[in-house]
Amino acid sequence: MNSSWRSLALPGLLFSLLLAAACGDEGSDAKGDTPSNNSAANNSAANNSVNNSAANNSVDDTGLITYHRDLRPLMDHNCMACHTTGGIAPAVYDFTDPANVQALAPLIVSSVESGRMPPWDLDDSCVEVQGSLALTPEEIGVFSKWMSDGKLMGDVADYVPQEPKVVDIGAERLVNDDVVEARIPVAYAPRADRADDYRCFVIDPGFAQTRYMTGFETIADNPSILHHIVAFSVPGDEGNLSRLAELEGEDALPGYECFGDARVSDQSVIGAWAPGGGVTGLPANTAIEFEPGTRIVLQMHYNRSEGGDGADQSAMRFWFMPEGQRPQEYGALVFIGNLPFAVPPGVNGSEAEACNTVYLRDDRSLPLPPEGTEARDARGNPMAIGETGCVVQDFYFNTSPLNLKLWGTFPHMHLVGRSLKVEAFEFDRGGETLLPKDGSNQCLINSTDWDFDWQRTYWYKQPKELPSDVMVRLTCRYNTMGMENPVQLGEGSEDEMCLGLLYLSAPVPL
């Protein structure tokens, strides 16, 4: 199947991180937690149930909130997967000991009241998404009232333990599909000379015929050091296999180093995980195609700065439709963004700062123009270092006759990113200049407080129907205050990106 729109899912310059859910104080898999084939349908309700008495401000006849009865179950469900012994959170923020929670109460409560914890940087008025990590106003009120009531501990006999929340999306759709486990071939101990170690491992799923992927989950082996995983598919032709062998031979360690992506030109993202991510089933009746010989590459991000240690041999599980079956709609993660840009030093990228660095790519039909298409700034001059901390990139498409559905969006920037918004506009073709129609914009995602460590894929509660003539606009803002040199597009941690991945589907031709 060679539909041109799907070729957009194979960018040459991809991104460093795609997360299905983040450890916004949400649950993660422990070593040895290996659900069965049917676990996808069985674990969602159990993992996401919580005693709601605290959120409803259930109090005794004194009217006071206590830790053991009211706050502790709430923290079990929303905090303890990270903030526990052996979790990814710093050891100083281990909430296992109630005395430590009481000592850290001012910081905990202020972080919850400000929205910093659990990390949730999405403007919820933009679009309704599944699996929100944000606490409700009632739940936040429990933290606040516990603090104002005097941080009372209460009676431990009143404590009803709760399971950490795991964000399962669409798990029930996978119960009849086949499971393939892609595990790191050997245990890997992250390098001691760096706080962050990005390492890629190649796995051959052994497919002799075309298969269609419908979902994924992660089995985290050592959560004290495992920050996230990104999974790529790489077609198994001679050129790609030769390139992967070359990369694996760069040093004597297992796998190969890979910060930005899988370092192969022909690659597609197929899934990702961070603590809190559970089973992810792709939207109903959609699937991602795997050709015979396709390899899976797992990009592992290890972080030892918070005291974690040891080796890791994590795995990802992928669900596939039974052999010989096809989906009703082909799905693909389509790449939008990363036209050449550079941001000057000493700008803060605030909403008050104008976006006078605008890049346009007028396509009018899929796929995108060849690499090297010239990008220009708002004045029509060839690309140069911008004057502000805001970059706008516009992409024009004609989707007819595909009738594409948009199911979810993954925004991505690096370390100096401040916010990222993705919008879709309908436009007219009447004149030489393609301008968006007033009032036609749809907000696809708005990350208002960007944090590289807590990015994720946002799956919509309902798919969006795109107009046949659609312009997708990315608005990226950056804070380079205190820096001496410009920051430009690139794969390194010192570089920046401005991109979005859109999970689109189109009907399978009859």
What does this structure look like?
The longest helix is centred in the N-terminal third of the chain and has 12 residues, at 67-78. Helix content is 12%, strand content 29%. The protein is of the alpha+beta class and 510 residues long.
Quick rundown:
12% of the residues lie in helices and 29% in strands. By secondary structure, it is α+β, with helices and mostly antiparallel strands.
Characteristics:
single chain; 510 residues; alpha+beta; Jelly Rolls; 3 domains; ten-stranded mixed beta sheet; five-stranded antiparallel beta sheet; 6 helices; 22 strands; 29% strand
What's the count of strands? 22
Give the end-to-end Cα distance, rounded to a whole number of Å. Answer: 12 Å
Give the SSE order as H and E letters: HHHHHEEEEEHEEEEEEEEEEEEEEEEE
CATH architecture of the largest domain: Sandwich
Rg from alpha-carbon coordinates = 23 Å
The oligomeric state of the chains shown is: single chain
Which percent range describes the beta-strand content?
A: 25-35%
Q: Compute the number of structural domains.
A: 3
Counting DSSP H or I runs of 4 or more residues, the number of helices is 6
CATH topology of the largest domain: Jelly Rolls
Name the poorly predicted regions.
Answer: 1-59, 362-375
CATH class of the largest domain: Mainly Beta
**Helicity range:** 10-25%
Estimate the mean pLDDT confidence: 80
Shape: globular
Major β-sheet profile: 10 strands, mixed
Q: Supply the helix-strand structural class.
A: alpha+beta
